[in-house]
Amino acid sequence: MRSRRWRAKTAVALGGLLAAGCGSGGDGNASPAAGKGSAGYPVTVTDCAGARTTFTSAPKNIVTSNASSLELLLRLGAGDKVLGTGFPPGKGTLPGALDAQAQRVKVLGEHVIPKEKLLGSGADLYIDTFASMDMGAGMGETPSEEEFKAAGIKHTFLKSTACGAMSEEPVTDLSAVQDDITSLGAVTGTRAKAKELVDGMKEKVGAVRKALAGTPEDQRPTYFFFDYDAGTKQPMAVCNRQVANAVITLAGARNVFADCDGDYKQVGWEDVIAKNPDWIQLAVRNRGSEAANEKAFDEAQKWLRTNPATKGLKAVEEGHFLRIGSEPTTIGGVANAAAVEKIAKTLYPGKVG
After folding, report:
1. How far is the C-alpha of 260 from the C-alpha of 277, rounded, in Å?
2. For residues 15 and 249, what is the distance between their CA atoms, to the nearest angstrom?
3. What mean pLDDT comes out for the span 110-138?
4. Residue 50 — left, alpha, or beta (φ > 0 → left; ψ -120 to 50 → alpha)?
5. pLDDT of residue 39
6. How far is CA 139 from CA 17, 83, 155, 181, in A?
């Protein structure tokens, strides 16, 4: 199974959307756009290296690199602007009506969109969920910034994923995700909906934090994110620059690999055994139906119970498993707040309602 480790080619390519004057995180990093015109334009966004991109009007033809940026646009009500995507969501993987909308979006690439197809797509904006990467395995390369410019395509990134690994501090809140939503709202002219989504996230997370305010750090349970689909021979740990670290922390747990600087890192089962977590999340990727997901959860749980290296873990012996999918935990989006709530309810049934 394919590893989730991504190798950035250059720091300059790493980027995140920061809408001018409207970052929800309140970190003051947004670049001001002078002379606001109709509908809040122009809007200037910056990437992680500070490169600026200005929009004088809403983009009309957007291509998304994968399902996460596509989902955000659909939630914002900007799905009619999306002409294609890479890494499409499988049928049934998005909730409710979003799934039907997503299935109507043209698939430009089952994985990374081929370079020539992307440049010739007719897009005026390409939203990259990850940095420019050496994807390996013959999956192709993204165009250079010069090639994007020549094709008339503005190239922006999602901060919550593209910038995570190069963050100077551990990721312990969802401000970067909220900035992505706010910024996409500014760029696509859906500010009001973006505010509604961000406010909803803040309300859910705020309720959990309030309920757990009196729980000392050393009394919070330890937690291992078991990325079953990344392979079982050598586990893939989520480190402190991954959004999952924020989800776990906000839910009142302690990520056993929070001492790992970066987003992902391959570790050994001996490392997991040494941590001996109180709880284990069976993080399987969405199979497209509830039945298929439950089967995958069953497989992951059975593996932990029968593998000689893991069956003696405290969480395994006590049956402390959480059946929460990988995507809501590791991919920045509205669902992160729901994941915080679900984890907290499981770990603190008497405190979090």
Report:
1. 16
2. 24
3. 80
4. left
5. 67
6. 25, 21, 20, 28
Cβ(183)–Cβ(17) under 8 Å?
yes
CA dihedral 233, 236, 237, 240 (to 10 degrees): 160
Q: What is the mean pLDDT of residues 255-284?
A: 97
Amino acid symbol at 157: F
Which of the pair, 86 or 5, is modelled with greater confidence?
A: 86
Q: Any residues with CB less than 8 A from the CB of 100 and at least 6 apart, and which?
A: none
CATH number of the structural domain spanning residue 237? 3.40.50.1980
Strand order across the beta sheet in which 154-157 lies: 107-109, 82-86, 62-64, 125-128, 154-157
Cis peptide before 170 (omega within 30 of 0): no
- Which residues, including other chains, have CB under 8 Å from residue 12's CB and lie 6 or more apart? 49, 51
Beta bridge partners of 157: 128
- Which residues form the domain of 299? 212-347
**Domain edge (last residue) among 115, 149, 169:** 169
- Whole-structure pTM value: 0.86
Q: d(Cα 85, Cα 63) in Å, to the nearest integer?
A: 5
Residue 158: per-residue pLDDT: 87
353 confidence band (pLDDT: 50, 70, 90)? confident
Give CA–CA dist 69/129, Å, rounded: 6
> CA-CA distances (angstroms) from residue 63 to 8, 10, 194?
21, 22, 19
Pair (120, 42) in one structural domain: yes
Which of 159, 166, 163, 164 lies closest to 180 in space, CA to CA?
Answer: 159
Which of residues 169, 199, 223 is at a domain's end?
Answer: 169
Higher per-residue confidence, 94 vs 106: 106
- Residues near 291 by Cβ (< 8 Å), separated by ≥ 6? none
Note the pLDDT tens digit of each residue in 298-338: 999 999 999 999 999 999 999 999 999 999 999 999 999 99
